[in-house]
Amino acid sequence: MNKKQLFLIILILWYSQCFSWMSFPIESTMYGWISHILEFFLLLAYFAKRKSASYTFSRPVMCVMLIPFLSIISAVWMNGQTFMKGFVALTSQFTFILYFLFHLYHYTKKDILRVVMIIGVIFCCIKIVQQITYPAMWFCEASRINEITGLVEQRNGFWRIFMSCAGCATIMLYYKFNEYVQTKHKVALIFVLLGCINVFLDLGRMGYASTLIGLALVYIPDFTNPKNLAKIGVVGLFACGQLAR
C-alpha cells in the first residue's frame, strides 16, 4: 500500500467516523475543529496546483460542492441564523475538492479502487460479525438506536445495523460483478457474495429491487438487442414485485 492510498483510507475513516464507531468522539469540539482544519488544507492543496491538470467533470463537481451554500441565505433570512454558523455547518462540502486533488496529485484508478475494495470488505465483515455478536455491537449510526430500549430495529430475525461507508460496499459489489462477467475470475465472486450479504442485511425491499436492476444492467449491457430488453423487463417486473410485497 502506498502513501496515497493510506492517506485516502485515513480521510475516509475520519469523515465516516470510522464506520460509525459508537465510541468515536463525533460530538466533541475537537473533532469539529480537526475536520475544519483538514478541509482547509484540502483547499490549500488544490489552490497551490490548480492550473497543472485538466478535469473532465469540473463544472458538475463544482456545482455539487457549492450550490448547497445558497441555503445559507434562506437560513439567515427565515431562521435568523448567522452567516458564519451556516458556513461552518457546510464546510464538509469542501471534501468534494478531492476530485480535483486526485487529478493534481496523479491518483490512478488502481489507487482509488484498491482503497474502495479494502473499505468495502472491512465494512461487510463488520456488518456480518455484528449480526452474530448482537446485542454486543461497536459500529452503528446513533439515529438507528432506539433511545428508550437501546436496541436497533429487528426484521425477519435479523438486526438492521446501519453504518457509514456503505457506498464503498456498493461500489465493490458492482465493480467485482462486472469483473467476473468480463473475466470469469472466480475470486471476484467472493467480493460479490460479501456485497450481496450486505444488501440482504439492510433488509429493505427498495435495496433488493435496485440491486437486482443494477446487476442486470451490468450483466446485460447491450440494450439494442430486443432479447436483452426482454430480460431486463423480466428483472424489472421481479424487482417491482419485491417493492410491492
Folded structure, characterized:
With 245 residues, the protein is an all-alpha fold. Helices cover 66% and strands 2% of the residues. It has twelve helices and two strands. The protein has a two-stranded antiparallel ribbon. A hairpin with a 2-residue loop joins β1 (154-155) and β2. It is globular. It starts with a helix and ends with a helix.
Label this structure with key terms:
disordered C terminus, mainly alpha, 66% helix, 245 residues
* Class computed from helices, strands and strand pairing: mainly alpha
Count every helix, treating DSSP H or I runs of 4 or more residues as helices.
12
Calculate the mean pLDDT score and round it. 79
Outline, from the CA principal axes?
globular
Query: Which range best describes the helical content: under 10%, 10-25%, 25-40%, 40-55%, 55-70% or over 70%?
Result: 55-70%
Could you give the order of strands across the largest sheet?
A: 1-2
Major sheet attributes: 2 strands, antiparallel
Number of strands: 2
Rg over CA atoms, rounded to whole Å, is 21 Å
Ranges where pLDDT stays below 50 over 5 or more residues in a row are 241-245
How are helices and strands ordered from N to C? Answer: HHHHHHHHEEHHHH
Percent range for β-strand residues: under 5%
How many angstroms does the end-to-end distance come to? Answer: 45 Å
